[in-house]
Each structure stands twice: as structure tokens, then as C-alpha cells.
Amino acid sequence: MLLRRSAILATSLALAASSMGYDLVRDYSGPNFFDGWDFYGSWDNLTLSNVWWVNDTRAAAEHLAYVNEAGRAIIRVDNTTNLPPDMPNRDTIRITTKDMYDFGSVWVFDATHLPYGCSVWPAFWTKGPNWPYDGEIDIVEGINLMKDNQMAVHTTHGCTLPTNVTQTGKIGFTDCSQGSGCTVHETRPNSFGEGFAQNGGGVWATQYDVQGVFIWYWDRANVPQELTNNASSIDISTWGTPSAAFPVTPQCNLTQFFTPQQIVIDIALCGDWAGVPGIYSSTCPGTCNVTGPGSPAYDNAWFEINYVRAYTTGAPTPTPTSSSAASTATTVATVTSTGAGGAASQTAGERQGTSGAASVWGAGRGVGAGMVAVGLSVAVGVVMVLS
Question: In angstroms, how far is the first alpha carbon of the chain from the final one?
């Protein structure tokens, strides 16, 4: 793996002057939005939250995943059940793309509403097939009543990033192997919570490249024209400075820590970030709990999504890759460098401390949390499909 990624990097860096153009290869939108995704269908053995991520049949029956009359995908927490104390897991959704995307990809996520509220932990993120070992990118993530989005990169041991970053976001921690990962906090207003919904939502774009990972965010009024016009090809060179930049550096060659990625959308509740007492109490009363009436507690715990789109350099034909018990995935990206609009920097992360007061900023998955979850899953006999 290391030799392959190093060879890719060397070849791609020689193409530093190549085009910044990407072609549309997948469009998850409209009535067929859910056709390209797998439903998790199990309890949350990843972040140890108090949810059951239901399968597609149950999601339809409980009206937790559907396309509304406006043609937007809705993904929500069950807010109709009065959950008794002896049933600590509330139904919600986690979906994962059937396809995997290699270096040379851009993913665009357009939403008008993100889940929020006490105990609520939504995320739009990516992972390799052998999570948590094949890298993770958190593009949209927040908890409880946070007002600003947090972005992060998670790796195994050996990836640290410098602090001289060309980005608009605020750096958190810098060791990507810790539970926090390397995090960046959005500084533009209305990137999460109630403010995001009241402002008409917004759009994120993520470049997954051999030169690094770069994330842009725009509120509704400032989305690039080529995205509002639904262009089949995009040129990222006009997008300016990203919100978060995780470039390849001597301290962290990301190509050695990442494999082709699948896109994930989920909603967790409580768990090992949102439910940590010191974090929960910073914005919410009492202790984290999902039992009792679902309304009004979870009336705002839903995604409304215009689309998710995947672009790649060269628009290759998908080729089969390994299949899991759940589905067969395909890899749909080429591996060429386009560079990131002038961003040659790094990032940082944060999520939990090993002791003392926990910070409200953080990230819930990553290698540390993953190992705990894997261990507990094995202990209770849960089969986790990781490859």
C-alpha cells in the first residue's frame, strides 16, 4: 500500500499544472435518491450512541427515510415513539454509498436542514472499507445545540499536521490519530443548527486528492454558480480559500493513510461525544437521554437534502471492487492530482480529553473510538462488516 500510494503521489505531483476540472459521475437526488445507498440495519456499534440504525424496510414503514413533495431527501430520527426506560435505543438512520471514490474526487453536499437538538449528533462523512483503519473525513458534524460545523480527518498513528494553514476555519488539535482527529471549526456564520435552517441551508464541497483533503462551505446566498446551475463539469480553481485544509506534508502523507472512500450520512444520539456529561451540559440541561416522548425532543432532528453529487477527473467508467455481505461496491474515481485552489496547509483536531473537562469541540469516531466500538461489538457477538 505504501509503495503504491507513494508512486501515485510522485506521478501526480508531476502533473501539478493539470486542469482543475471535474466531471459528474454520480448524482444522488430526486425520487431515486436512496437507490445508491445501503441502510445499516443494526445498533450503533461505532460511536456507542443510543440508536438503532434501521434497515430500508423499517425506515420506509416508520417514515424515517423518504423523498418529500419538493423532491428532497428526508432522513430523520423517530419523533413519534414514547420510548420506555427499558428500551434505551431510538430508531434513526445511517446510509452508506454503494460506490467508493478514490483520489481525484470532489463530493458536493447540498442541504436545507441539518438535524439539531439536545442529544442529537448528525454527520456527513466518508470512510474506507476497513474502518477505522482506512481513513475518515468528517465534512459536516456537530452535536446538541452547537452553532458551528466541525470538520476533521482521522488516521492511524503517524499523521500530524502543522499549524500554518491556508484556510478560513479555526484549527483545533493536530494529531490525526487521536480520538478527536485533526479538527477545524467553521468560522462562517450559520453552518449548523437552527441558524443553518433559518438561512436556507448551504453547500459543502470536498476535494479528495493526492495533495490533500480540502473542504469548502458556502451559505445559500454564496453557492458558486456552476453548482446552482447543476453543471455536469465543475472547475474548483475559482472557489478560493477552503474552510478546512488538510494537505500532504512531510509530517503527514495522507495518501499512506487513506484508501477509496464511501460517503456516509447518519444521525446518532448521545454516545461518546454528544452524550459525554461535561460536553452535554455545556449547551443542554440534565443528562443525555433518548427515552420518553419523541416530540418535541426530536422535532428538529432531520436532514433535508437537495442532492449529493460525486465528481471525478476524467469521468471514468466504474470498475468492480471487493464486495461485502451488505452490497457490492465500485470504485468510481481516477487518481490524478489537480491541486487545491492555493491551499497548501494543514489542520487540527479536537474532541475529547483524556482527563479533566471535555471540550464541546471534538469528533466522535476515529481510531480510538473505533477500537472501543469494535471491542464491544465482538464482546456481544455482533458481526461488523468492515471489508
Answer: 16
SS3 content of the chain, % helix, strand, coil (to 5): 15, 30, 50
Q: Is the dihedral of CA 45, 46, 47, 52 positive or negative?
A: negative
Residue 158 grid cell: 503517524
3-state secondary structure of 354: coil
Q: What span, in angstroms and rounded, lies between the C-alpha atoms of 287 and 277?
A: 6
Cα–Cα distance between 270 and 167 in angstroms, integer? 31
At residue 193, φ and ψ (nearest 5 deg) are 70, -155
Which string of b and e fits 231-264 if b means at least 16 CB within 10 Å? Answer: eeebebeebebbbbbbbbbeebbbbbbbbbbbbb
> Left (φ > 0), alpha (ψ -120 to 50) or beta: where does 385 sit?
beta
Q: What is the DSSP letter of 236?
A: G
Kindly report whether the peptide bond that precedes residue 318 is cis, defined as omega within 30 degrees of 0: no
Q: For residue range 306-317, what is the model confidence (pLDDT) as tens digits?
A: 999 999 986 444
Q: Which of 141, 186, 304, 350 is catalytic?
A: 141
Residue 161 binned pLDDT confidence (cut-offs 50, 70, 90): confident
Q: How far apart are CA 159 and CA 41, in angstroms?
A: 33
Res 387: pLDDT: 33
Give dist(CA 37, CA 94) in Å, integer: 10
Question: DSSP labels for 258-319?
Answer: ---BEEEEEEEESHHHHT-HHHHTTTSSS-----B--TTTTTT-EEEEEEEEEEETT-PPPE
Task: Please name every residue paired with 203 in a beta bridge, in sequence order, or none if there are none.
Answer: 110, 218
Grid coordinates standing for 276? 459525554
Q: Are 119 and 47 in contact (CB under 8 A)?
A: no
Average pLDDT over residues 259-272: 97
Half-sphere exposure of 129 toward its Cβ, with a 13 Å CA cutoff?
19
Helix (H) or strand (E) holding 377: helix 366-379
How far CA 270 is from CA of 102, 117, 120, 229, 308, in Å, comes to: 32, 11, 7, 38, 26
What are the cell numbers at 342?
492555493
C-alpha cell at 264: 456516509
Per the residue annotation, which of 136, 186, 304, 350 is the catalytic one?
136
Residue 186 designated active-site = no
Model confidence, pTM:
0.83
Q: Is beta strand 212-219 parallel, antiparallel or unpaired with respect to 244-247?
A: antiparallel
